[in-house]
Amino acid sequence: MTETTQSTDAEQAAESTQTTGIDIEGGTGQPLEVTSGETREQTRDEWVEYEFDGAAKLAVEDLDVYYGDDHALKSVSMEIPENSVTALIGPSGCGKSTFLRCLNRMNDRIKAARIDGSVALEGEEIYQDGVNLVELRKRVGMVFQSPNPFPKSIRDNISYGPRKHGDLETGFLAGLLGRSDDDAVDDLVERSLRQAALWDEVQDRLDDNALGLSGGQQQRLCIARALATDPEVLLMDEPASALDPIATSKIEDLVHELAEDYTVVIVTHNMQQAARISDQTAVFLTGGELVEYGETEQVFEDPESQRVEDYISGKFG
Ligand SMILES: Nc1ncnc2c1ncn2[C@@H]1O[C@H](COP(=O)(O)OP(=O)(O)O)[C@@H](O)[C@H]1O
Ligand SMILES: [Mg+2]
């Protein structure tokens, strides 16, 4: 594990509010492309037809992402319902991580990336001038593929974010909880670790270095750390792909539980996992297109698109 990956969240939290490299107003001048067998209009109809109960937490419209000349995401539109699990699946390189990173403007950090289109969080455009990226990423937290706890104690991993945001120093948290600051930290640490199903395993070793935990425990700590800043949305990019089957199943159970209180968007290359844990599934295919989006059961059992059926039945990947 490198120093760089360990500090990713810290850097993320410390990101300035500059909006360099983003072009949301101007058109791209690119002609609309039509893919083999399906026009974009046909696939768009399917997305519009996907109706879900409850409110949309995130609404993505005509999202294009370019890395230099590489057109990585092509006019993606989808609405993500709140308090549910949305799985993003598709072959390697189809743009799943790119899409996920657009949801809390993590692509702003990639110099070559250019983003065109709209992403609204509860109706409010996140790609507009004046959006506070620290605040945005507090509301839309992220968990990465490899566990990346800070080389600090378990307790400090949890309190780091709220401290960074000034919520502890200002007494915001204590005020909120009606407690002293020290008690507020204790409460926060316990609450976050319980939410991440890790409390029972670590409650007697909160001052131990987090790097001494197993991989699966480290990943649950990273989830607890993300929850500690009280997010509304949790983005997870293949959070179990580096873990053994038992640790994976704990993360899957956890994701399921978290959807009661949070909007979870999870990338997985594991189709069985997507089928097990998600309420709705979005299938991206090579070329950066969203080809199908709907209720998970429908997408897996009776997909509208032949290309998706071929992908799901393993005819290509
Ligand atoms: N930081 C980057 N710089 C340049 N190209 C990138 C970068 N990240 C991803 N890409 C390109 O964008 C496309 C989609 O990548 P990615 O979103 O990582 O796909 P996935 O997560 O589905 O494997 C790929 O062609 C990849 O090479
Ligand atoms: Mg990826």
Automatic annotation (TrEMBL):
This is Phosphate ABC transporter ATP-binding protein. Residues 1-43 are annotated as: Disordered. SMART domains: AAA. Residues 1-21 have a biased composition (Polar residues). It holds the Pfam family ABC_tran. GO terms for biological process: phosphate ion transmembrane transport. It comes from Haloferax mucosum ATCC BAA-1512. Residues 58-312 form the ABC transporter domain.
